[in-house]
Amino acid sequence: MEFRPCIDIHNGQVKQIVGSSLMDCGDHAEENFVASKEAAYYAELYRKKGIKGGHIILLNPVSSPYYEVTRAQAMQALAAYPGGLQIGGGVTAENAGVFLEAGASHVIVTSYVFQNGEINKEHLDALCRAVGKEHLVLDLSCRMRDGHYYIMTDRWQRFTSVVINDSTMNILTKYCDEFLIHAVDVEGKSQGIETTLVTQLGKWCDKFDNAVVTYAGGVHCYEDIKLLGKLGGGKVNVTIGSALDIFGGNLSFDKIIRMIKEAS
């Protein structure tokens, strides 16, 4: 179990938002926290703490008038911590290499791979050719519907028909180095983790060649960290956003780092 930090950028600012509130129309999101500091500050903080594998997410679509300023913030963060951070948001086979050259260790992809509600194998193959399996993270952020977790695309606004299950994981583990999974229904709400999902993720880490999985969503107290470690069998990594004191929350950033190191 590892702590994976985050830098979410929306409308050119580092923010913590309620995931399910994000809308492309008007570039709107319900905000929990808006930073006065730039993305590079957080990247440098993570570098000094020696925490690798965190992710930068560009929350504006390429079509947004805010996209370029959001992208500029992201590129500055990559430069501040070369090799230490992953990046996602609008990544395609055509532009993925640019982000790696800018310092990203991995690119994170959802919508480019899951198109028209299905897995686009042609795009998966193109990504692997462009950056290599070892530099690819698939974002399987999901919501529960009809008793199943469905992968969400387009900044968590659109359901696919792809269920996260053994069959899906068996296919996708062949194409990527890691998975990032936001539990969209609890993301940014600080009301507790999605326990059913975390339990399943722990089983997949065992079943599929020790797949590397990072969970995000709902952590709001130190007990959540202990519960996540237990349900995930100590193998599911965790991202914490709104609940951290560096993002206006009540949980100590330094204490979280210590807790997870001691539990690992």
Protein model, in words:
The chain is an alpha/beta fold. The protein is built from 8 helices and 15 strands. The strands form 3 sheets. A 10-stranded mixed sheet has the order 3-2-1-4-5-6-9-13-14-15. Strands 10-11-12 form a 3-stranded antiparallel sheet, with no helix packed on it. It has a two-stranded antiparallel sheet with strand order 7-8. Strand 4, helix 2 (67-80) and strand 5 form a beta-alpha-beta unit. Helix 7 packs parallel to helix 8 (253-263). The longest helix has 14 residues, at 67-80. The protein is globular and about 40 Å long. It starts with 5 loop residues before the first strand and ends with a helix. The mean pLDDT is 92.
Please trace the helix and strand order, writing H or E for each element. Answer: EEEHEHEHEEEHEEEEHEHEHEH
Number of helices: 8
Percent of residues in β-strands: 15-25%
Ends: how far apart?
6 Å
Question: Structural class from helices and strands?
Answer: alpha/beta
**Uncertain segments:** none
Outline = globular
Order of strands across the biggest sheet? 3-2-1-4-5-6-9-13-14-15
Helix content: 25-40%
Find the count of extended strands (DSSP E, 2+ residues): 15
Largest sheet data: 10 strands, mixed
Mean pLDDT level: 92
Rg value: 17 Å
Write a brief structural summary.
This protein is of the alpha/beta class and 264 residues long. It is built from eight helices and 15 strands. The strands form three sheets. The chain has a ten-stranded mixed β-sheet with strand order 3-2-1-4-5-6-9-13-14-15.
Topology of this structure?
Layout: E1 6-10, E2 13-17, E3 31-34, H1 39-49, E4 54-58, H2 67-80, E5 85-88, H3 96-101, E6 106-109, E7 114-115, E8 118-119, H4 121-131, E9 136-139, E10 142-145, E11 148-153, E12 158-163, H5 166-172, E13 178-182, H6 195-207, E14 212-216, H7 222-231, E15 236-239, H8 253-263
Parallel strand pairs: 1-4, 4-5, 5-6, 6-9, 9-13, 13-14, 14-15
Antiparallel strand pairs: 1-2, 2-3, 7-8, 10-11, 11-12
